[in-house]
Amino acid sequence: MADESNGSLASNLWIRRSEMRDASQLMELDALVWDSRTSPSPIAWTSREQYLQKCPPGSQLVAGIDDLICGYLGFSTPSAMASQRHVYELHVAIHPSYRRLGIGSKLMATMKELAAEEGIRKLCLRVLSTNPCAIAFYEHCGFITQGRLIAEYCIDGEYVDDILMWYPLIR
């Protein structure tokens, strides 16, 4: 699939906010990416309507090449409280065939710019301790650990920590 050189990929890559027409590809990407190593519970959308209710258009940055969505970065405030409106909680998914090509880094850089423009002061995310590649990626993007929920989940008989990471937008 991703047999292009990294330079060629970069020139063909586009990033934009999600749209209604993206739902099917994003649902397929979720089914491909989120498993017991990356999520406490597999994501299984029962319908397009359910997906769109949870992930409305505009709530994700999507990256693609031609008509194919290769990854996304979802963002939302962690709660409805006014006191938490300065925070975006993130989740990132990259198609396995397009990993390690810089797509996640480009999505994260775009997210940092967008969030700063919107007055967001803090980006945060959660990552399972069983996902060392994701942890390394987030650290590469400047995220730091702010906490660790020890043995928060029991996945496939193994106790797994939930690592909380953050990135300050205004220093």
From TrEMBL:
<dbReference type="InterPro" id="IPR000182">
    <property type="entry name" value="GNAT_dom"/>
</dbReference>
<dbReference type="GO" id="GO:0016747">
    <property type="term" value="F:acyltransferase activity, transferring groups other than amino-acyl groups"/>
</dbReference>
<keyword id="KW-0808">Transferase</keyword>
<protein>
    <submittedName>
        <fullName>GNAT family N-acetyltransferase</fullName>
    </submittedName>
</protein>
<dbReference type="Pfam" id="PF00583">
    <property type="entry name" value="Acetyltransf_1"/>
</dbReference>
<dbReference type="InterPro" id="IPR016181">
    <property type="entry name" value="Acyl_CoA_acyltransferase"/>
</dbReference>
<dbReference type="InterPro" id="IPR050832">
    <property type="entry name" value="Bact_Acetyltransf"/>
</dbReference>
<feature type="domain" description="N-acetyltransferase">
    <location>
        <begin position="13"/>
        <end position="170"/>
    </location>
</feature>
<keyword id="KW-0012">Acyltransferase</keyword>
